[in-house]
């Protein structure tokens, strides 16, 4: 069941699947109206009210990247890691619970029409928007290599989640699977191959990726898009709580982003 609320951006969606993934995280799939499922593009997110109806805490919705959409089933999936109180509440929601959702919001990743080879660089729950981007790219006949880093094998995205056409290469800090070390160690080998790089993960990973790309790429190609995670209040460009500094001035992560060109972002 999906019930539309007052605006075209809000709806109530019943949870139809909950699957554990990546250690302590869950994939939560809920029913969504046709307009929302069709509108969602890779890199966009939804804001989910993450509290019991009788409670006011946490007051504000919490943002989650769209992980997958299924037009025929009329569903949307998010990947949720229990980080604080809202995300822990969401992880505990059972089948049949009804979520209050706003979205899809934000600007999607920009894949140039002539791009044929996409390199994904994922850390932690940053895997979510890159999973959807991989599925869309493979459907469009493009080549995808998906690099993922995690602490150990148990917290990696399972290969079975990705389309089989995707080359999946992993790095773990403890060496329990793939390369021992950081996911960004894997990047130089692919920079000559990729037309575009897409990344989502924690800020230290972005800094490391920026350093590796600056050291190893020729000129300004491939370009790199980074989907940044900023704490968000409104999610619609009203509160300016999520601004990031760019070479073109301050931009909101929730409307102008979350995806920004790496060379546009200004951080230390
Ligand atoms: C565009 C976007 C997409 C996201 N996609 C996903 C996703 O797909 N899966 C997922 O699991 N998470 C995702 N997140 C992060 C998720 O929104 C936060 O983990 C969640 O909002 C935390 O809320 P909480 O109530 O659980 O934590 P709280 O109890 O509110 O916070 C606990 C602590 O964490 C700090 N904090 C809260 N949010 C953030 C944040 N985003 N960055 C840094 N510190 C923070 C708080 O200040 C506090 O100290 C995304 C965030 C953004 C902005
Ligand atoms: S969260 Fe309010 S402007 Fe971005």
Write the layout of secondary structure elements.
Blueprint: E1 2-4, E2 10-21, E3 25-31, H1 34-39, E4 45-48, E5 62-65, E6 68-70, E7 75-80, H2 85-92, E8 98-105, E9 117-123, H3 127-139, E10 143-150, E11 167-172, E12 179-180, E13 196-200, H4 203-216, E14 223-227, E15 243-246, E16 249-252, E17 259-261
Parallel strand pairs: 9-10, 9-13, 10-11, 11-12, 13-14
Antiparallel strand pairs: 1-2, 2-3, 2-8, 3-7, 4-5, 4-8, 6-7, 14-17, 15-16
Bound molecules: flavin-adenine dinucleotide and FE2/S2 (inorganic) cluster (FES).
FE2/S2 (inorganic) cluster is lined by residues 232-235, 237-242, 252, 254.
Uncertain runs are: none
Shape: globular
Give the C-alpha Rg.
Answer: 18 Å
- The sequence of SSEs as H and E is EEEHEEEEHEEHEEEEHEEEE
- Looking at the structure, the CATH topology of the largest domain is Rossmann fold
Q: Tally the helices.
A: 4
Summarize model confidence as the mean pLDDT: 94
Please state roughly what percent of the residues sit in beta strands, choosing from under 5%, 5-15%, 15-25%, 25-35%, 35-45% or over 45%. Answer: 25-35%
Please give the domain count: 2
State the end-to-end distance: 46 Å
Give the helix proportion (percent range): 10-25%
Would you identify the CATH H-level superfamily of the largest domain? Answer: Nucleotide-binding domain of ferredoxin-NADP reductase (FNR) module
State the name of the first-level CATH class of the largest domain. Alpha Beta
Report the sheet with the most strands, covering strand number, pairing sense and barrel closure. Answer: 8 strands, antiparallel
The name of the CATH architecture of the largest domain is: 3-Layer(aba) Sandwich
Oligomer: single chain
Q: How many strands in all?
A: 17
Structural class: alpha/beta
Which molecules are bound besides the chains?
A: flavin-adenine dinucleotide, FE2/S2 (inorganic) cluster
